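Lab notes, practical 5.
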Amino acid sequence: MADTLTTLQQLYILTHGKMANTTVLASQEASFNANGGYGAIDGTITSILNDYEAANGTAATAQLIARQGLGLEITATQAINAVNGLKAAGLNTWAKMLHHLADEQGALTTTLDNRAEAAMHFRAQLAAKGNTGFFSGTSIDAAASNVIQSIGSSAQSLETGKQSMTDLAGRLSSSGIRGQIADGYYASSIVHADANENFWESPGEWGALANDYGTVIIPANADTGRYILTGGVDFLTKLPFRGVMAAPASSPVVTPLTTLVQNLLDKGQSILQATTTVKAALGLAANVDVLTYEPRKVLMSSTASAEAKAAAFTAEKAILQVSNTATQIGVAIDAAANNDSSSNRAFEVYEAMATVVNERGSAGLKIDLTDAAVIARIIATGDLNGLVTASASRLTLIVDASNTAIATASGGAALAKAATVTQGAVVEALIGAMDNNTLDAMVTAYTGASLDAKIAVAVPGQIIPPEVTVVGSAIESGSVG
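Output from the prediction step:
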């Protein structure tokens, strides 16, 4: 049976979908000790869930508990049957039902056990780093909750979650969370919490300008809402970033991976569903946490194992293909629209890509972004107003060629060269080609042997900015690995 603090975490996760922070856990422990048990805590649990039940119904309440505590997606009928079964066994309050789950030993509650263990690991890591007092505020609660909710029933899922908790504990300070714009790395980008979900930064929403190293400090009590990133300068291409990235609220890292996850969240998936789907669709290693992974840091490390570097190389290729697809199609649609909203267009392309990722990943299958048919479908779905219908076949050839160059790069240096061209020169040339109706010439210049020749002479900038810590390695420019 779990100790009292772990049980308190289990109950809190079941009730709220997140771990109890330092202040809350201390208060609950004091209540337990003062009252000789869970009485007052159980009263609060029942009150909270009764209110939710009154507003949303019994089935929705049980479904919420199953999702945020057990990592399960159940139907309304299954939810009602489960509640009725527990009531028949004498468990006639929500608190009693939650205690039953916390005490249960077996496959049903393995995810809950894992999530509580990760929560306690985070608590230990905060103490070890002297950061216990910093675990307070809506942003930090949300960041920890993201990790908790990404943990499933497997031992590997727990281990990955604990690694992410260790990383998060080290990012906290009195100022908040140290966030990083990564893969690619962009200086001076704008990040904001899109609380009203209209994509653009609105009055009253938290926003910040990343520094010259792509780092941003997220205040402990910043507004909640999905994070949207636009603008900045790419360290690799030394050109403006014309795409967009997103991440779940308070995410400490914003990457193409978190962008796909956020789009799946927008479609109603849980964090566990979304992260699992993205990993499967992109063929990422089991120990990768898509909410925090930065493969370029692994590739630049002199202490990472050969296995870790191989996994990072595969992940980096997938990430670059995702970014190529979203940004190139996005700027083409935007240029056809004769306006400056390319970031929003790229986000619409990400939404279309997420649909395909979900279809493939939820079935345990990979998405092939060098497949012309897949690219053509993403263009057709993401081009909401049919602005590039006439150009779709040629645009498909360009995106396909860029993604194939990434896929066939044989080493780190070759990959950096390919990325420099496909993330930089191709994007800039697409804007001009769409504006001047010279897409046929663009196809000739940026596919086949012509693209290969440009890649061969490319000079990459910095793979990662100097302020990003890489264990066991000095920061280098021009190659990865």
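Observations recorded by the TA: The two ends are 47 Å apart (CA to CA). The chain has 19 helices and ten strands.
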